Amino acid sequence: MNSQFIHAFDFAVEGSLKRFMSPLPIIWKIERFLNIGSERKYREAIKVIDEFTMNIIRSKEIALEEQEDVKEEKLDLLSRFMGSSSNLGFGDEDEKRKFLRDIVISFILAGKDTTSTALTWFFWLIAGHPRCERLIYNEISASPKLTSTSFTYEDLKEFHYLHAALSESMRLFPPVPINSKLAGPDCREYKPERWLDDDGVYQPSDQFKYPVFHCGPRMCLGKDMAYVQMKCVVAAVMYEFEIEAVDGGGGAGRMVDPPYMLSLLLKKIDGLRVRLKRRQSKHDSPPSF
C-alpha cells in the first residue's frame, strides 16, 4: 500500500470515529455541507481511498481477462467476490465496482490494525505473566515437527494453550472495544486456563458471550485467519526470543488501570517498548515463577 493511501485511510477512520462520538453532530454536518475544516480533509481522504481501491479492482479485472482458465482454488479473495457478484443484477459496471470497492475497504478496515493491536496487548500481558510465557514456549518447542521458526498449519492447530492465551488477551483488551463481556468475579485476571478443558484442549466460548469477532450473521469472516496470523507471529517470536516489556508488562497490579487510549481501536498508550534477548538454547524455557 502506498503512503498516501495509508495516511488517507487513517485520517478517514479517525474522522468517522469523531463523527460517531461528537456530542453535537450538527457541527460536522454543517462543515460537510460547506466543505470546510476537518470535513473537507475527510472528503479528500475518501477520494484518495476510492481511487486506490478502484485501481485495485480494475487491475484485477484486467488480470482475470488475461487468465481466463485459472482454477478456482488458485483465485484470491477479491477474485472470488468478483466472480460471485456477477449475478447480483447490477445496473452497470460502475455500480458493481462500487460494491466491490466497499468489500475491499471493509477487509482493509477489519485487518489493517486490529491484529497488531491484539498482539500488542498479548505481548504486554505475557511479559507480566512469566508462568504463561513459560507454558506457551514449552508448547511451541515441544512440537515434534519443529525444525526452525517455520510452522505448518497443522503445527498451529496443536497450540491449544497459545490459542487460549490469545483469546484471553482479547477478552480483556478487544481490538474493537464497542462490545465487551465480563467473565465472573475473576474477570480482571489473565487466565488462559479458563479456555481449556481438563485435557488442555481449547474450548471456544459462546459467540454471544465473547463478541470480539462479533456474532451471528455479522461474525467476522477473517476470524480463523486472524488466529492463524497471530499464532504464526507469536510462535516465531517466542521461539527465538525472550521478551521483556520496558514498563514491566501487564501484571496483576497494572490491570486496575491499564494504559489504553480509546479510538476506533483499543490501542495501548505509547505502544509497546520491549527488550529482546535471543534464547541461548532453543530448549531453554523462561524461568519458573
Q: What would you note in describing this structure?
A:
With 289 residues, the protein is mainly alpha-helical. The chain has 10 helices and 4 strands. The strands form 2 sheets. The protein has a two-stranded antiparallel sheet. It has a two-stranded antiparallel ribbon with strand order 2-3. A hairpin with a 3-residue loop joins strand 2 (260-262) and strand 3 (266-268). The chain is globular and about 60 Å long. It starts with a helix and ends in an 11-residue tail after the last strand. The model has no long low-confidence stretch (mean pLDDT 86).
Task: Name the structural class.
Answer: mainly alpha
List unreliable stretches of 5+ residues: none
Number of strands: 4
- Spell out the helices and strands N to C: HHHHHHHHHHEEEE
Ends apart, CA distance between termini: 44 Å
- State which percent range the strand residues make up: 5-15%
User: What profile does the largest beta sheet have?
Assistant: 2 strands, antiparallel
Radius of gyration: 22 Å
Q: Could you report the average pLDDT, rounded to the nearest whole number?
A: 86
Contiguous helical run count: 10
Name the overall outline: globular
Report strand order across the widest sheet.
1-4
What's the layout of helices and strands?
Layout: H1 3-21, H2 25-34, H3 37-66, H4 77-84, H5 93-111, H6 114-127, H7 130-141, H8 153-157, H9 160-172, H10 223-240, E1 241-245, E2 260-262, E3 266-268, E4 274-278
Antiparallel strand pairs: 1-4, 2-3
Helix pairs in contact: 1-3, 2-3, 3-5, 6-9, 6-10, 7-9
